[in-house]
Amino acid sequence: xxxxxxxxxxxxxxxxSLGEKVVKDIDRGxxxxxxxxxxxxxxxxxxxxxxxxxxxxATAKRFFxxxxxxxxxxxxxxxxxxxxxxxxxxxxxxLREAYYRMKRTLPGSNINVVDEQTESNDAIEDxxxxxxxxxxxxHINANKxxxxxxxxxxxxxxxxxxxSKMGSGGYAVPSNVEDIIFKRVNAKFVIYMxxxxxxxxxxxxxxxxxxxxxIISSQGQATRGVRRLLxxxxxxxxxxxxxxxxxxxxxxxxxxxxxxGSISLAHISESLAIPEAxxxxxxxxxxxxxxxxxxxxxFEEVDLxxxxxxxxxSWFKENKAWQRQFKMMGDMKxxxxxxxxxxxxxxxxSDTYLPQKIKKKDFLD
Amino acid sequence: MADQRxxxxxxxxxxxxxxxxxxxxxxxxxxxxxxxxxxxxLTIVKEGVDNALDATxxxxxxxxxxxxxxxxxxxxxxxxxxxxxxxxxxxxxPFAFGKLLYGTKFHRLRQSRGTQGIGIHGAVLYxxxxxxxxxxxxxxxxxxxxxxxMMINVSKNEPHIISKKDLKNPEKWHGLKIEMEAEGKYIERxxxxxxxxxxxxxxxxxxxxxxxxxxGKLEFRRTVNEIPRQPKEIKPHPYGVEIGIMRRMLNNTxxxxxxxxxxxxxxxxxxxxxxxxxxxAKIEFNHNPKxxxxxxxxxxxxxxxxxxxxxxxxxxxxxxxxxxxxxGMKKExxxxxxxxxxxxPSVYRGNPFQVEVGLAYGGELPKDQSSQIxxxxxxxxxxxxxxxxxxxxxxxxxxxxxxxxxxxSNSTPVGPLAILIHxxxxxxxxxxxxxxxxxxxxxIVKEMKLALQEAGRRLAIYVRQKKRLHDRRxxxxxxxxxxxxxxxxxxxxxxxxxxxxxxxxxxxxxxxNVVIQQAEAEEDKENExxxxxxxxx
Lengths: 365, 537
Fold this sequence. Notes:
By secondary structure, chain A is of the alpha/beta class.
């Protein structure tokens, strides 16, 4: 118990010492500053050994007495004060609530501390880096997102939940999955899919029952909660993770983030990335083999640009299998959506496509 | 078909002469500026004032011009325009005012306000057609004063003198006074007589103009005592001559052969160039210019465009100069800062021209409206057809955001700005005979843009400086507002006293150097940008 409460105190200590550093600057008559690690492609590297994207240690100085910095500086300190308060009273806020807590108008002006939620979200992400604490440790949660079904029983805040008895909606993944306890896991692998529509298809067809697997989706890019849950299932229960996305640069990048981590959250790749995750589909080969080429949607300029970018990422650059996919995608000049599989039959994806791919171990790594 | 003779251009011309002058005027009044009563009144004043300015200019006299406008009936006005110019010789008066297309300016190439020889006659004709009354001309060259009451005999296109008086001139007055009554409608504000006079006062700050109108007197002071240098007259350059004009020159020349014609009637054509033109046109060197066939003259005109020639001389131009532009704007626009640029002369289609730009900034100029545009061609304000004008194209294509103004694409900039563009040339390429818009030849628009950019960059230095001071003040205020907020959060975080933190922050702010350093760093960055821009140009 003692150890745990100490662990809880570390984020708070970090927040307080951050405040004290700023006060010390002021006492010395200096322009108060913060060292904020830079969250951009220029400050991450692909770690060959761990096979994930990790952050470098470049930081930017953020000053209070600087017109370009003052707003972000105040937002960051506001976020710190808010997090400390939450830890003190042991309550949690959603990102949206945190935004409203921080949204204030400066007296005698028309300036708000934050105008948009993206600003408070940004300030909180910066604070995670500066205070070396995760959002969850700062008592701030994202909205629950996504759906799960499978033959798994868990305990969540004292409630026993059976993922096979969640009806058509599935179990919604909370922002913080650290305290979930896996009671019984009866599955051979996990399929993560990009689209809620495919999840509903697979759930209706009870694929999780037929193939002994867990199906998870969160619309588009996976949330932190979903990513962490996938990682825990993978690490704690040795379940292979298969990713099912559209055949386009955006789908491939969703896979990339699950596998190697993302650029903006590179500092916590180790607790989110799953280097062993595999792409089950749709590959360009699938498009050809399953005769989906006639459902090609022509690339727009942005798609081509994104494809070019992804191709150059260092974690794909040396990978011949991936470069082959990118090249074929570029030659095809179009994308194919998962939903196109339904042209072959209503339950084609559940009855034919997925079983065939898994049987043949036809994955892209 | 074979024996049906083709009618030559010369024959056509003589036929045209038979059409009555009145009919010609009636059919073309929209081209001459008399299409509606409002514009007609403005055109009369404009023609009179332009003539007065040209006459005083040529004689090197500082102009004193007085315009009176009196309403006589609900739709008629009595217009009087008086100047202190050299006056007109007694014998020339009847033709100067009583015969259409009789003028001193048409056949020469020199920068002047009027060129077409229609101007004042149009006014006389309009007066006569709308009121049936005669006009009164009073003039003197410094000796006796002559007063004419006259009309135009429209069927013969000849002056008709009703009465002529000679008066004593003890004060040795010289000048010209025109009085005429005409149908019209009077307005003020946009495209009005007062607006025209105001702009004329800007481009002629050495003129003293008094306007006595229906709503009271307006006086435009003289603020400089120098007259711009007199432009030289030049011969046409082969690249710029129209075929019709060239044919007329062929007919009128005293040269005995074609080579002589080319070298004596055109500028920049020497003997070898002339021979080259003849060879290209396949015309004998000693061919008599008067005996060229239609086809030969066409070949000659074509050949002239193909031979490499030096650009025409530019001493025929009379720009206002940066000093006059600034003085002119200063006295009529209530702004706080002025810049002016006179570009070096350039050439379009064989015609020398020069562009000048003036910018007035700040002061009482409206902050949130499209900037005011003042267009001049040979010092004459252009009030109509702004959107068809080359100046407009140059203004909207200039990126004013670089110079601190807001501007949406393809629009004039918004901000406390007045833009003056002066186009000076021996031949202004108007888009129509109404003489209100300059045609957008590539060379002209390019020169205008270069002038605008140069002026814009100069103005931007001032605008930025002003903005910097303003920003510096705002910055101080900005931090003042954030200080309590930051102190509050820090107090919560560290459980230290908020008041103490505020005091500490205030002290840092007072040290102030943070703010100044930053302002200066930013300014340096901006200056770099300007320098880069200049390099690109």
